[in-house]
From TrEMBL:
The keyword Glycoprotein does not apply. PANTHER family: BLR6921 PROTEIN (PTHR42718:SF46), MAJOR FACILITATOR SUPERFAMILY MULTIDRUG TRANSPORTER MFSC (PTHR42718). This is MFS transporter. GO terms for biological process: response to antibiotic.
Length: 502
């Protein structure tokens, strides 16, 4: 029997209200639905912006660098603050942090949709990332902490992955539809009703909890230094093509990044309450899974970014046609993620990541043959379908590896860590690839569209190399060991724990 006194304790963070949800199976379904909807909204905001970038450039006079920061500004604050938000949710209750994230994210979406200049838009995107940082780990830790039975956890994680991939598909098409029929502003304003509806749902279906007694404070200095350090790296790398690697501005940014990240490591080694508890890295697969997820962040982000620019700025397609052109890739990812659920038990995470990484690398090499005047079916559709198929069978195995085997009390920070690796991997990777593309373009012997496309080709080849490296790294994953049957739980305890996510 639980040692807690029911008269003095309250439900765990983000536990469904017992007045609204009676059966354990339904409780878990409520947790999964809320988690999937939150993840859908967070990913939707990333993918929906890609198609609208050219329209934002025309409407607000954005430079190429500013276009990159519309994407990277979101990813940096999202990834940099994930661990802080994750630890806060473990300490102060997941519903409370989750709801704060919804308010911040929704308000920033409104601000971005009403932006009058590039600065206002970029500020909104940075703030949106901060709100997403509170939502991302909560959505995943809801599942990993509540679904303790392996079969149920895998199914719930699969639907969580489908929600993310589905948001990618919906965002691509919706971004094109909204930009073409209304305005680019609506790719941000669309988040307002979604966020408001989800906020109401948390009040209706979920109960608050008492704060955790395990820790009494969070590592704010660590969170600030790692976020600023990553931002400095991205800024320095993205400014190098225009200012030169030897310029004072770029060198100052790189030096600042080194100092800040060194300070982060020093803080983490000395503080009693680090952002990443040392026991989180006790599992070998957790360490490797997070590295794989960082690589996947680049491989997933790069093709959408460069193809969106290629289709609209080189081929002259409308935002709607560009969105529809990228839709098949997103659909394949969604279907593949769902199918990977049945493959993981029989094939194993290692083989799936190995095969998927190799397939995606091949598709990216094909995609890197983009001509100035392309045939859609041969140069865009076919290679993106291959890339999507490869990515779809690597996502879930990496997530399962990085979230299995740890202490359930650290579910929030473990979920935040994997999200951080994916977002920062995407941000740093995109900054590096934009730098590569810009450098090749400026140093090319040709001018005009041919030079621009040559830069895109080189960047996509680098992404292919990263996908190949992901496949090789997967060989370091250990096959899961068969666990001994657990002792049967008492009926009252099993029922009470069925809907407990944390």
């Amino acid at each position: 029997m639980s040692s807690r006194d029911p008269s003095t304790s309250s439900p765990d963070p983000l536990t469904p209200s017992t007045q609204n949800v009676a059966k354990p199976g339904v409780r878990l379904a409520v947790v999964a639905v809320i988690a999937c909807l939150a993840q859908f909204m967070v990913v939707l905001d990333s993918s929906i912006v890609n198609v609208a970038l050219p329209a934002m450039k025309a409407g607000l006079g954005l430079s190429v660098g500013a276009q990159q920061w519309v994407v990277d500004g979101y990813l940096i604050t999202f990834g940099g603050l994930l661990l802080l938000a994750s630890r806060a949710s473990d300490l102060f209750g997941r519903r409370r942090v989750f709801q704060i994230g919804l308010v911040v994210f929704t308000a920033a979406s409104l601000l971005g949709g009403l932006a009058q200049d590039g600065v206002m838009l970029l500020v909104a995107r940075f703030v949106q990332g901060a709100g997403a940082a509170a939502l991302g780990p909560a959505s995943l830790s809801l599942i990993t902490a509540s679904h303790t039975e392996p079969g149920r956890r895998t199914r719930a994680l699969t639907w969580w992955g489908v929600a993310a991939a589905g948001a990618g598909a919906a965002g691509i098409v919706l971004g094109g539809v909204l930009t073409a029929s209304l305005s680019w502003r609506w790719v941000l304003l669309v988040n307002v009703p979604i966020g408001a509806g989800l906020l109401v749902a948390t009040f209706v279906a979920l109960q608050a909890s008492t704060a955790s007694e395990r820790r009494t404070r969070i590592d704010v200095p660590g969170a600030v230094t790692v976020t600023l350090g990553v931002a400095a790296i991205v800024y320095g790398v993205s400014a190098a093509p225009q200012d030169g690697w030897a310029s004072g501005q770029v060198l100052a940014a790189i030096v600042a990044a080194i100092v800040l990240l060194a300070a982060f490591l020093l803080i983490e080694s000395r503080t009693r309450e680090p952002l990443i508890p040392r026991e989180v890295f006790a599992e070998h697969n957790v360490r490797i899974g997070n590295v794989l997820t960082g690589c996947l962040g680049l491989v997933i982000t790069a093709p959408l970014f460069f193809l969106s620019l290629y289709l609209q700025q080189v081929l002259g397609e409308t935002a709607l046609r560009a969105g529809l052109s990228l839709l098949p890739m997103a659909v394949v990812i969604s279907v593949g993620v769902l199918a990977s659920q049945k493959l993981i038990p029989g094939v194993g995470p290692k083989r799936l990541v190995l095969g998927g990484g190799l397939i995606a690398a091949g598709g990216l090499v094909w995609l890197a043959q983009l001509p100035v005047h392309s045939a859609y079916a041969v140069h865009v559709l076919a290679p993106t379908l291959i890339v999507g198929a490869g990515m779809s069978v690597t996502m879930m195995p990496a997530i399962v590896a990085a979230t299995t085997g740890g202490d359930p009390r650290n579910a929030g920070v473990a979920s935040g860590l994997i999200n951080m690796c994916r977002q920062i991997g995407g941000a740093l990777g995109l900054a590096a690839l934009v730098t590569v593309a810009s450098t090749v373009t400026h140093q090319g012997h040709t001018t005009g569209p041919e030079s621009v496309v040559h830069g895109y080709r080189t960047a996509l080849l680098v992404a292919a190399a990263v996908s190949l490296a992901t496949a090789v790294l997967s060989l370091l994953l250990k096959e899961p060991r068969a666990s001994a049957p657990a002792a049967p739980a008492r009926r009252d305890e099993a029922t009470a724990d069925a809907g407990r996510p944390g």
